[in-house]
Structure formats: C-alpha cells, structure tokens
Amino acid sequence: MSAKTKHHLRDRKVFAALLRSKRRFFSTFLMAYFMPNRVRTWRAAVSISKTKYKLAVERNLIRRQVKAIMREQFCNLNAVDVLVIINQGFLELTFKEKQTIFLNLCQKLQELDAPKPK
Which N-terminal stretch is annotated as signal sequence? Predict the structure, then answer.
C-alpha cells in the first residue's frame, strides 16, 4: 500500500520555503525541515542524494521504508509539510532504529501542531 497522493509533496516553491524555514530536526542519519501548511493534512517528501547512495535499488529501499514509517507514525498529524533528507549510514540501521528516529521527529512535529499556551 503506497502513501496517498494527498500526502505527496512535489511543489518546488514549497521545497524552497521548507529549506529556508527555521524549523528543523537534525539526527545523525537524517535532516528534516518542516513548516505548517494550509492543506488539512500532512505532506512529505524524501530526498536521497545519488552521491551518498549510488544504486537506485538502495535509494528506493530507503524511500519505501521511510514512507512506511511515515504512514504509521504521522497518521494523527495535521497541516504540516515535511522534507526529509537522508544522510550516509541510514541504510545500515535496523528498521527499529529508523522507527525510533522518526518517532522523535513525530514528537517534534506534534509540538508544532499543539496549541501554544498563553
């Protein structure tokens, strides 16, 4: 089962805005840029550099795993755009370790989504 089209992020203007955004999540194996959007659902894009992973098979495996984790953990997020950039070494992690990294990212995104106290 693939991620729904409404969760795909493809607009270059949004990519540029995400990269300029001050809201970031850094991990050893990935960087995530995020910001609120006007759509009522979360949207995500995964970027994997050819210089870090030469084989398309590896890049596709990473992309499938990341999308599976996002579908599982981002289900209760609202109105946020996320750009995930994968770094070297991500492929060597176990699936459970990858889930832990994305769980931390999801908690950070829920803080963004939560109403601010007055």
Answer: none
Return the structure tokens found at 106: 């999801």
Long-range contacts of 95-103 (CB under 8 A, 24+ apart): 95/65, 98/65, 98/66, 98/69, 99/69, 99/72, 99/73, 101/27, 101/29, 101/30, 102/66, 102/69, 102/70, 102/73, 103/73
Residues facing residue 33 across a β-bridge? 24, 83
Domains of the chain: 10-107 (3.30.230.10)
The whole-model pTM stands at 0.80
Rounded Cα gap, residues 25 and 71, in angstroms: 19
Question: Is the pLDDT score of 115 beyond 70?
Answer: no
**Nearest of 112, 115, 117, 107 to residue 36 by alpha carbon:** 112
